[in-house]
């Protein structure tokens, strides 16, 4: 059986079994697994319509209670919300003391460059001078990107997140920023904002917009989209929320963990648990036969993340995205994105302190704790041999944690909708 038909078959099996989380893990053939030798390209994904399959319903068990059934329907939503609600809001001074301060700053730089890159494209496509630019920050958390949107000159922002306390902190951060802007010389007005507290993988967000007919130019989902791959219905709900109000020519951008990389590391280490003193990953599935949905992993990153996530099978994401009129533009590993954008973003790298100075300045010490954390920097300076005595870098431990992430960009193509709500598009 071909790779394409195997992927179609696996999706149909997943759809048939997906009654929220009450379904068995998807069993796929070898060709539909997370292949590491060959990447599936966009042209390999079949878009032919498939026959509808009636979902199997989960039978009630003798020990089922209303509480247990509610938990099945919610999946890991409460766990994720509780984790992010419990994270303490720390000031700049406290964050600067973190062992992973440069890793966090580097990730912030990646987000800044990605947001700036596609906001610029959105504005280029606007026919009207100073036309309004509306953005949806999906899974916005505490509002870490609010300043990026201000610098991007947007008109209106929708902030949605599952964690209510995080959203309250986002509101406080916005009002602080707005007040500071009013006091600054030439600060002027900043964008308007609205907030939605909801599970983006289960609720239709458009119904919660202040104006459900609103057209959006850019949707951003940073370090969060992978939570939707708990099940097929959740992934489809998340993509619908991203695409439904997005203007044709608008973009859906984001960052996720790279499933291929995570599984490859597990196979190399011959263990489903691995990491270093910065991060730790535990894969809770058969790494030789990973499911398309529900491939749970527990990811720990010092001070930032410590909760269950799900791996995203990228060819499946591309196929599902097309259902909602989203065409893949590009995906790049963080290291590749850095190589492409480092010259353009050189000044911002310095401003954001996204790289650590090595050797450290007088009176400071390096944050890396392993003996070989800066071996690469030492070798670089030795090979340079032209009097250069310092370099901007990250410790080896931080780079290993950062390199498991990848960016993605989808473009909303022009489409119409049939009477039954099915998108009709030409890609």
UniProtKB/TrEMBL annotation:
Where is this protein found? Nucleus
| GO function term, MF aspect, one | mRNA 5'-cap (guanine-N7-)-methyltransferase activity
MRNA cap 0 methyltransferase domain span: 98-413
Question: Where is it predominantly found?
Answer: nucleus
Q: Which reaction equation describes what this protein catalyses? A: a 5'-end (5'-triphosphoguanosine)-ribonucleoside in mRNA + S-adenosyl-L-methionine = a 5'-end (N(7)-methyl 5'-triphosphoguanosine)-ribonucleoside in mRNA + S-adenosyl-L-homocysteine
**Under the cellular component aspect of Gene Ontology, which terms does the record hold?**
nucleus
* InterPro entries tied to this protein: mRNA_G-N7_MeTrfase_dom (IPR004971), mRNA_G-N7_MeTrfase_euk (IPR016899), RG7MT1 (IPR039753), SAM-dependent_MTases_sf (IPR029063)
| SUPFAM superfamilies (UniProt xref) | S-adenosyl-L-methionine-dependent methyltransferases
Q: Where is this region: Disordered?
A: 24-67
Q: Which residues bind S-adenosyl-L-methionine?
A: 111, 139, 161, 199, 222, 227
Q: What class of enzyme is it?
A: transferase
Entry keywords, A to Z: Methyltransferase, mRNA capping, mRNA processing, Nucleus, RNA-binding, S-adenosyl-L-methionine, Transferase
What the entry lists under Pfam families is as follows: mRNA_G-N7_MeTrfase (PF03291)
| Enzyme Commission number(s) of this protein | 2.1.1.56
What superkingdom heads the lineage? Eukaryota
Q: Which family does it belong to?
A: Belongs to the class I-like SAM-binding methyltransferase superfamily. mRNA cap 0 methyltransferase family.
Name of the protein this chain belongs to: mRNA cap guanine-N(7) methyltransferase
Q: Which organism is it from?
A: Acanthoscelides obtectus (Bean weevil)
């Amino acid at each position: 059986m071909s790779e394409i038909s195997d992927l179609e078959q696996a999706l149909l099996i997943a759809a048939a079994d997906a009654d929220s989380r009450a379904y068995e893990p998807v069993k796929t053939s070898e060709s539909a697994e997370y292949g590491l030798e060959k990447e599936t390209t966009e042209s390999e994904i079949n878009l032919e319509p498939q026959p509808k399959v009636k979902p199997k319903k989960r039978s009630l068990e003798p020990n089922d209670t209303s509480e247990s059934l509610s938990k099945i329907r919610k999946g890991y939503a409460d766990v994720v919300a509780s984790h992010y609600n419990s994270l303490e809001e720390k000031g700049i001074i406290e964050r600067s003391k973190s062992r992973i301060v440069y890793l966090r700053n580097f990730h912030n730089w990646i987000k800044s460059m990605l947001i700036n890159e596609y906001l610029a494209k959105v504005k280029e496509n606007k026919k009207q001078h100073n036309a309004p630019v509306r953005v949806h920050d999906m899974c916005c958390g505490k509002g870490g990107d609010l300043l990026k949107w201000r610098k991007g000159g947007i008109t209106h922002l929708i902030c949605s997140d599952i964690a209510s306390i995080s959203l309250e902190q986002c509101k406080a951060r916005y009002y602080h920023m707005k007040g500071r802007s009013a006091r600054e010389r030439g600060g002027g007005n900043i964008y308007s904002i609205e907030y939605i507290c909801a599970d983006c993988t289960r609720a239709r967000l458009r119904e919660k917009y202040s104006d459900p007919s609103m057209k959006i130019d850019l949707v951003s989902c940073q370090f969060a989209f992978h939570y939707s791959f708990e099940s097929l219905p959740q992934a489809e709900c998340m993509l619908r929320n991203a695409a439904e109000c997005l203007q044709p020519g608008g973009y859906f951008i984001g960052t996720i963990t790279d499933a291929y990389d995570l599984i490859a590391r597990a196979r190399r280490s011959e263990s489903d648990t691995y990491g270093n003193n910065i991060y730790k990953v535990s894969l809770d599935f058969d790494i030789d036969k990973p499911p398309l949905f529900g491939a749970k992993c527990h990811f720990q990153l010092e001070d930032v993340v410590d909760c269950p996530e799900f791996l995203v099978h990228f060819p499946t994401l591309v196929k599902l995205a097309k259902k909602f009129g989203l065409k893949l533009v590009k995906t790049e590993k963080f290291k590749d994105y850095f190589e492409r954008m480092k010259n353009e973003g050189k000044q911002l790298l310095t401003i954001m302190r996204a790289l650590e100075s090595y050797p450290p300045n007088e009176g400071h010490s390096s944050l890396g704790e392993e003996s070989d954390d800066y071996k690469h920097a030492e070798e670089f300076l030795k090979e340079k041999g032209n009097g250069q005595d310092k370099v901007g870098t990250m410790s080896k431990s931080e780079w290993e944690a950062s390199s498991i992430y990848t960016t993605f960009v989808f473009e909303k193509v022009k489409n119409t909708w049939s009477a039954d709500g099915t998108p009709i598009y030409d890609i």
